[in-house]
Automatic annotation (TrEMBL):
Organism: Brachybacterium fresconis
Classification via SMART domains: Lactamase_B, RHOD
GO molecular function: hydroxyacylglutathione hydrolase activity
InterPro entries per record: Metallo-B-lactamas, Mito_Persulfide_Diox, POD-like_MBL-fold, Rhodanese-like_dom, Rhodanese-like_dom_sf, RibonucZ/Hydroxyglut_hydro
The protein, known as: Hydroxyacylglutathione hydrolase
SUPFAM superfamilies: Metallo-hydrolase/oxidoreductase (SSF56281), Rhodanese/Cell cycle control phosphatase (SSF52821)
Span of domain Rhodanese: 382-463
Keywords of this entry: Hydrolase, Metal-binding
Top-level division of the source organism's lineage: Bacteria
Lineage, uppermost ranks: Bacteria, Bacillati, Actinomycetota, Actinomycetes, Micrococcales
């Protein structure tokens, strides 16, 4: 048996390639939408992908199940559990609790493990060449290394009300009936790692075991004592912000993402064409330079995506393809790099990247408004209507913020404009921890018509400056 983990650092998301080497057939679980990596793996191992499945209706990325099935002719399988409200809207084979997929000598058994979502399936894998007992467990967003899938995401992202309590109860039951009944040696391969918003304390380890989690996971003592209420209270406490784009992912994954097929390579866009397109709104530019370079000058209305490594996350914060029909042009050194950005973008359903430019030469530019920590109070005194906005997560905000700041995370600002003052009411002064998330959020807000001033260096720089002022006041010396 072959089992390979394909990990996307951008979205902290894992998919799995399971192959029967004797029959040269393979199954992919939870594929992302840019599917070339799976086709390459199959070719490398001389295998044919005959089945594709997923653990649940994802909220954090757009599923590649339909895309990969269409490209390979594989059978698509999805959950048939959870009731009518959780029925997929596209043709696929339905899997119910204890249904199996046979892959040569390998048996993959679906287990209904509700809690994170009502329809959630996990997959027990038995390598029939060695044993008739399962040795591997693909748990999706059910059990992570050191944590569990959050049950409040439907409330946070999908607009449902108080589903978190029933979800937490379902998680408790799923652990009792579909996880802790397994032998300790069973290896657990989760759907996410550290950095995902699908849990609050995910570990960075790529895998764990049933026995390790039984002994050391935070939830284990609650299960041991059969303390359901204590489990629910701790599980729901301190969950991170859910990004606003999660709601769109839920809808699109349920109905079935559009099949892209072979995507054209982005082409170079000329300066005159891009300038006209920026003026009439047919184009939007993605400035991919580091934040300090963006602050020296960028194209008016450009979006800031300062890192290829987080391009999917950040474009989903900054661009809504359901309301914005602009074609995206990315600042990239060549077509290959532009294509990489496109790969990241389609993982979150942003499919409109059509071209690239290699520099901003000849394009109109403007310098984004920035204020230093030393001049922040003077600016606020000068403009009493300005809103100081902390775009970090609510847990970061609760741990300490600039006095008077309100909180709305960078993943929500574009989609929660009703929570912001009218554009004519005054400017926004924004900050995150170091400035990177703030650059993404501030650029998106400027493109939406807001007057935005960024706090230079964000909260980290403000905290450092404040500490210096305190030391000067108490000792008369520069603490540096």
């Amino acid at each position: 048996m072959l089992l390979e983990r394909i990990y996307d650092e951008d979205l902290s998301q894992a998919s799995y390639f399971i192959g029967c080497q004797s029959q040269s057939v393979a199954l992919v679980v939870d594929p992302r939408r840019d599917i070339q990596v799976y086709l390459d793996l199959a070719a490398h191992h001389g295998m044919t992908i005959t089945a594709v499945t997923e653990t649940h209706i994802h909220a954090d990325f757009l599923s590649g199940t339909r895309e990969l099935a269409a490209a390979t002719g594989a059978t698509a399988y999805v959950s048939g559990e959870g009731g009518e409200d959780w029925t997929y809207g596209f043709d696929a084979e339905l899997l119910h609790n204890r249904d199996t997929i046979q892959l040569g000598n390998i048996t993959v058994t679906a287990r209904h493990t509700p809690g994170h979502t009502p329809e959630h399936l996990s997959y027990l894998v038995t390598d029939g060449a060695f044993t008739d007992e399962p040795g591997y467990y693909l748990t999706g967003d059910f059990v992570f290394s050191g944590d569990l899938g959050r049950p409040d995401l439907l409330d946070e992202a999908a607009g449902m009300e108080d589903t978190r309590f029933e979800g937490a109860k379902q998680l408790f039951a799923s652990l009792k009936n579909a996880f802790l009944t397994l032998p300790d040696h069973v290896q657990v391969f989760p759907g996410h790692g550290a950095g995902s918003a699908c849990g609050k304390a995910l570990g960075a380890l790529p895998s764990t075991t049933v026995g390790y989690e039984r002994k050391f996971a935070w939830w284990a003592t609650y299960l041991e004592r059969d303390d359901e209420q204590g489990f629910i209270d701790e599980l729901l406490d301190g969950q991170p912000d859910a990004h606003a784009y999660f709601a769109r992912m839920k809808r699109q994954n349920k109905q079935g993402p559009a099949i892209l097929g072979r995507r054209p390579t982005p082409g170079v866009v000329g300066v005159e064409e891009l300038t006209r397109g920026l003026q009439d709104g047919t184009y939007a530019l993605i400035d991919t330079r580091p934040v300090d370079q963006v602050h020296t000058g960028t194209v008016p209305g450009a979006l800031s995506i300062p890192s290829l490594g987080k391009a999917a996350t950040h474009i989903a914060w900054a661009f809504d393809p359901e309301t914005d029909d602009a074609e995206l042009v990315v600042l990239a050194e060549d077509a290959e790099t532009a294509t990489e950005y496109g790969d990241h973008f389609v993982r979150v359903g942003v499919d409109s990247l059509t071209g690239y430019v290699t520099s901003l030469d000849g394009l109109p530019t403007t310098v984004p408004a920035v204020v230093s920590p030393a001049h922040l109070e003077a600016l606020r005194a000068e403009d009493a209507t300005a809103l100081l906005l902390d775009v970090r997560n609510r847990s970061e905000h609760a741990d300490g913020t600039v006095p008077g700041a309100e909180q709305l995370s960078a993943g929500k600002v574009l989609f929660h404009q009703d929570d912001l003052p009218d554009r004519e009411a005054g400017r926004l002064i924004t900050f995150c921890q170091s400035g990177l998330r703030n650059s993404v959020a501030a650029a998106a807000l400027r493109r939406a018509g807001y007057d935005v001033v960024e706090l230079d260096g964000s909260y980290a720089a403000w905290s450092h400056w404040t500490a210096q002022q305190h030391d000067l006041a108490t000792t008369g010396k520069d603490a540096r």
